[in-house]
């Protein structure tokens, strides 16, 4: 990560961007970093998706780069006609081809439908299909649908254009759709240790009890400058909110009311004015905790699994109290009362 002439961290050019087409998902995975689920909304209109895509292309070009856009959610296949319309209009507008689309394959219910949709994606220039396969998703999606989607995609697109998250699970799957709590717990623990899932969003609420936890002071000095300013990766949701990397819920700016390039320039020049970004860049989640204590935040006696878990807990507190709402949101990225009750009533799975 570079530094400005004044010695401050420099904002990297954004070269990778995910359009979060919706927060809706058929699943409610314990690890989800945006609280996706059947009760979530935040759908991105077709014209907005294309305009954001165009703005991302222009931003990258202005910096001598080429943008790589992927489509995600939630579950982007939840509204197939809208997904198809976005891809068709983006192609007609001459925008960069879609780098990849992420899916849990819940929709792959029969061979004919699966093949037809994959052929349509191939014709629209899709470079890569990314299919989720792990103990978290297979609590909600029958594995037979994942296998149908992956094997059909390997035929239609070619093996090199299909990626599975994770291949080790795909090659030795567990179908947990009918599993009890004890069986899920037994599967979750080694998966967490093997793949080190991000403890943000719902993961921060449902998974930390599987891991060792430490006092907040353990994370003093673990800054997030690289993850927030040095990352070349952003996500943009249906409301136009731009998030750094995978840190959904931390709003850098809004690309509905300004162009992507204008948002980037504003962040580059004024990131110190964003209270969350400034705290995380300069002192990490421990500094964010320190600032939140002035608003009544109290450290959990149970501790925190890592700096991301601490950050998510502090931001949840701030969100619920409407502190810094211009940079902490939207509601879809934070636990509602139903999520909180579900977490309190369970052991996390």
Quaternary structure annotation: single chain
Average pLDDT, rounded to a whole number, is 93
Q: What's the end-to-end separation, in Å?
A: 37 Å
Strand content: 5-15%
Structural class: alpha/beta
Report the helical percentage.
40-55%
Helix and strand string, N-terminal first? EHEHEHEHEHHHHEEEHHHH
CATH architectural category of one domain: Alpha-Beta Barrel
Overview of this structure, please?
- This protein is of the alpha/beta class.
- It has a domain of 237 residues: TIM Barrel (Alpha-Beta Barrel).
- Helices cover 40% and strands 9% of the residues.
- Helix 1 packs across helix 2, helix 3 crosses helix 4 and helix 10 packs across helix 11.
Describe this protein with a few key phrases.
single chain, 349 residues, alpha/beta, TIM Barrel, eight-stranded mixed β-sheet, 12 helices, 8 strands, 9% strand, globular
Question: Topology of this structure?
Answer:
Elements lengths: L15 E5 L25 H17 L5 E5 L7 H13 L7 E4 L7 H13 L4 E5 L10 H14 L5 E4 L1 H5 L9 H15 L6 H5 L18 H6 L2 E4 L4 E4 L8 E2 L5 H11 L4 H19 L13 H14 L16 H9 L4
Parallel strand pairs: 1-2, 1-6, 2-3, 3-4, 4-5
Antiparallel strand pairs: 6-7, 7-8
Quick gist of this model?
The chain is 40% helix and 9% strand. The protein has 349 residues and is α/β, with parallel strands linked by helices.
């Amino acid at each position: 990560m570079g530094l400005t002439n004044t010695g401050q961290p420099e904002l990297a050019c954004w070269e990778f961007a995910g359009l979060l087409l919706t927060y809706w998902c058929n699943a409610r995975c314990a690890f989800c970093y945006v609280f996706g689920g059947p009760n979530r909304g935040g759908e991105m209109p077709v014209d907005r998706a294309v305009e954001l895509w165009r703005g991302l292309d222009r931003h990258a070009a202005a910096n001598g780069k080429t943008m790589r856009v992927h489509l995600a959610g939630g579950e982007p296949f939840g509204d197939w006609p809208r997904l198809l319309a976005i891809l068709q209009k983006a192609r007609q507008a001459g925008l960069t081809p879609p780098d990849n689309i992420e899916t849990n394959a819940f929709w792959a219910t029969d061979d004919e439908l699966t093949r037809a949709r994959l052929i349509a994606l191939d014709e629209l220039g899709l470079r890569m299909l990314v299919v989720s396969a792990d103990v978290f998703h297979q609590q909600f999606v029958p594995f037979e649908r994942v296998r149908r989607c992956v094997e059909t995609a390997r035929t239609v697109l070619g093996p090199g254009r299909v990626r599975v998250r994770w291949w080790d699970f795909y090659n030795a799957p567990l179908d947990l759709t009918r599993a009890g709590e004890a069986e899920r717990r037994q599967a979750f623990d080694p998966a967490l240790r093997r793949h080190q899932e991000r403890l943000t969003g719902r993961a921060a609420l449902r998974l930390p009890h599987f891991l060792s936890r430490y006092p907040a002071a353990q994370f003093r000095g673990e800054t997030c400058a690289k993850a927030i300013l040095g990352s070349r990766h952003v996500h943009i949701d249906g409301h136009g909110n731009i998030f750094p990397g995978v840190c959904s819920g931390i709003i850098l700016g809004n690309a509905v009311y300004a162009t992507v390039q204008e948002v980037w320039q504003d962040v580059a020049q004024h990131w110190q004015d964003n209270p969350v970004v400034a705290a995380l860049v300069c002192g990490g989640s421990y500094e964010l905790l320190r600032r939140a204590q002035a608003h009544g935040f109290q450290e959990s006696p149970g501790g925190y699994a890592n700096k991301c878990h601490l950050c998510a807990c502090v931001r949840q507190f701030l969100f619920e109290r409407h502190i810094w709402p211009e940079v902490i949101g939207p509601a879809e990225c934070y636990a509602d009362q139903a999520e909180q009750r579900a977490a309190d009533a369970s052991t996390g799975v």
